[in-house]
Design goal:
Layout lengths: L7 H43 L8 E3 L2 E3 L4 H14 L6 E9 L5 E10 L12 E10 L4
Length: 140
């Protein structure tokens, strides 16, 4: 038997498949890193919001001092925090929500636009991602 053929199409297909996998992994890694950065920023903003309590509203409770948060103060603290923090690495950063639902914890939701390192048909040109963080206010 005399089987003859070219390995070039098989090699070319393997190269294309390898490039698609490498691109997919690099894009997924980029998205994960950007999400972690955004979450760290939201977590820090929530901490700033949790520290925005009015000292005049502190009261003694059964388990210690009770801190009461107000949504307006939390929003203001989050805005001041973001204004004094370098957020230039985030595209279209937006505060989706900042406030308190229970008066004891600050809730912050931030969103940002992510773009993959290389644009292709497999990934969108841009993706809006959103993260939320909560920080509880208490004094010991």
């Amino acid at each position: 038997m005399n089987e003859r053929g070219s390995m070039l199409p098989l090699f070319g297909g393997a190269v294309v498949l390898s490039l698609v996998i490498i691109f997919g992994v690099s894009s997924a890694t980029s998205l994960l890193i950007e999400r972690q950065r955004l979450f760290a920023l939201a977590d820090s903003a929530a901490l700033a919001g949790a520290e925005s309590f009015d000292p005049a509203l502190l009261r003694e409770g059964a388990s210690g001092i009770v801190v009461t948060l107000e949504s307006d103060r939390v929003r203001g603290a989050v805005s001041r925090f973001l204004a004094t923090t370098d957020v230039s690495g985030f595209e279209s950063l937006a505060v989706e929500r900042a406030g308190t639902g229970d008066g004891r914890s600050a809730d912050v939701e931030l969103s940002s636009l992510w773009r993959p390192p290389l644009v292709s048909e497999f990934f969108p040109a841009a993706l809006r991602m959103s993260v939320s963080a909560r920080s509880q206010a208490f004094i010991r």
